[in-house]
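Project standup — Tuesday

K.O.: blocked on the structure for the chain from last sprint. Re-posting the sequence here as requested.
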Amino acid sequence: MEILWWLIIIICFVLAFAGIIFPIIPSVLVMWVGFLVYQFTLTSENIGTIFWIAMAILTVILIASDIIANSYFVKKYGGSKAGERIAAVGVIVGSFIVPPFGIIIVPFALVIITELLQKKSLPEASKAAFGSFIGFLSGNLAKIVIQLMMVIWFFIVV
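H.V.: unblocked you, prediction finished:
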């Protein structure tokens, strides 16, 4: 039975990383399922308060990484405040529209439209929208690093 539980944990961790490519998979939730399966099936001791606090903090950072990165790069590439906000909304909406491509296309398109409505030229609007693409890439890189930290920490603790 122990092998089955470990298999479920490993599958949860793999699915968490697949969620980076396919945002319809709730990466952080699946990661937590893996942690909780271990806690409630394979050990009689608490993994540790520091572990759980650290995982909670990393979870908040993980959830915010896409939105923060997208807004930051839209601003850095000349986008307006409205472009920053709409990029954040676009990431959330795009997660549910044509995954995994929606998370790239929706913010990009929404930022271009928003910037054009802000009376910016097409090259300026395109540059800000490109910032949303760079934000997507950086957000995903941050997710990979954070999730790796979480998994490695888990295996160090157990």
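K.O.: great, moving the ticket to review. The mean pLDDT is 91. Helices lie at 2-21, 27-42, 49-76, 81-94, 102-117, 122-157.
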